[in-house]
Design brief:
With 248 residues, the chain is of the alpha/beta class. The chain contains 7 helices and 14 strands. Strands 6-5-4-3-2-1-14 form a 7-stranded mixed beta sheet. The chain has a 7-stranded mixed beta sheet with strand order 7-8-9-10-11-12-13, with helices on one face.
Length: 248
C-alpha cells in the first residue's frame, strides 16, 4: 500500500494545506479517504483528475467531504464524456448532502456516484479489506482500518477518545490519527483528540508508527502537540504534510 497525503488541515484549510484527504493505492487501485475542502486541487497535483476508483467519506462535515461536490463537475462534464459512476462509501444521508451543496435545487448526483451506506463491519473495496466502526464525534463518524498485503493502516477520522478507536488501530503498521486540540486546556468534550491523547491511543493499540494529522494550525501549536504525543508514545511520531507519501 502507498498512502499519499492530499490534505491534512483541521476544520478549515490552512495556509499550506487543504483539509482532510488521503489517497491509498495498491495493485493499481486508488481509494480516496475523505475529500475535504480544497483537496481536489491536490488530487490533480499528486495523482490526476480521474485517478480515483472509490471514495470513503468518514463523516459529513465539510472539511471531510465538501470537494465531493466539486468533483461532480469533473465526472459529469468531462469533455470526452461522463466518467463511470464512482462508488462512494459514506454515512446515511451523503447523497442528499452532496446534492444539496452542489445545487440549490438539490439536483441528484446518482449519475456520478453510487452510494453505499457505512455501518460497523468489514467489507472489501478493491484490493483492500476495510473495517469501520463508529467513533466519538458529534455526528455519525467512522474510524477506518484498512488491510492489504499483510499490512495495516488505521485512520482515526475525527474523534475523541473511545474504545472503537483502539480496536481499529490495534497492531497497525501506521496509525493516521487526528490531534486537533492542545493538551492542558479546557477543550470541548467528545469532539477531538489532543496530541497526548493520540499518543496514548497509539501506545494502547501497540501501533508501529504514529502520523499526526488534522492539526488546526491557526489555533494550536505543532511543537506542543508533537511533544505531548512523544511523551505518551515511544515509537516514531510525525506530523504529515501535503504530498507526503508512506509505503507499507
Amino acid at each position: 500500500m502507498r498512502l499519499t497525503v492530499l490534505g491534512c488541515a483541521g476544520s478549515f484549510p490552512g495556509p499550506e494545506s487543504a483539509c482532510s484527504a488521503y489517497l491509498l493505492e495498491a495493485q493499481g487501485f486508488r481509494l480516496l479517504l475523505d475529500f475535504g475542502s480544497g483537496s481536489l486541487s491536490a488530487l490533480q497535483r499528486y495523482a490526476g483528475l480521474d485517478a480515483v476508483d472509490a471514495i470513503l467519506l468518514t463523516h459529513l462535515h465539510c472539511d471531510h467531504m465538501s470537494d465531493a461536490c466539486d468533483y461532480v463537475v469533473v465526472r459529469r462534464y468531462d469533455p470526452q464524456g461522463p466518467l463511470p459512476k464512482l462508488p462512494v462509501y459514506a454515512p446515511l444521508g451523503a447523497a442528499e448532502r452532496i446534492a444539496a451543496a452542489y445545487s440549490t435545487e438539490a439536483e441528484p448526483v446518482d449519475d456520478v456516484y453510487n452510494f453505499f451506506r457505512l455501518e460497523p463491519g468489514t467489507f472489501p473495496i478493491g484490493p483492500f479489506t476495510v473495517t469501520v466502526d463508529r467513533v466519538n464525534h458529534p455526528i455519525e463518524t467512522y474510524g477506518v482500518r484498512i488491510e492489504q498485503g499483510g499490512h495495516v493502516l488505521a485512520y482515526s477520522a475525527d474523534t475523541a477518545p473511545c474504545d472503537a478507536l483502539l480496536r481499529l488501530a490495534q497492531g497497525a503498521d501506521i496509525f493516521l490519527c487526528e490531534a486537533s486540540y492542545l493538551d492542558g486546556v479546557d477543550n470541548p468534550p467528545d469532539i477531538h483528540l489532543t496530541g497526548g491523547e493520540a499518543g496514548e491511543a497509539a501506545t494502547k493499540a501497540d501501533v508501529g508508527r504514529l502520523l499526526l494529522t488534522h492539526l488546526v494550525s491557526a489555533w494550536g501549536s505543532e511543537a506542543s502537540t508533537v511533544d505531548n504525543a512523544c511523551a505518551a508514545f515511544a515509537g516514531p511520531v510525525e506530523v504529515v504534510r501535503p504530498g507526503s507519501r508512506y509505503d507499507l
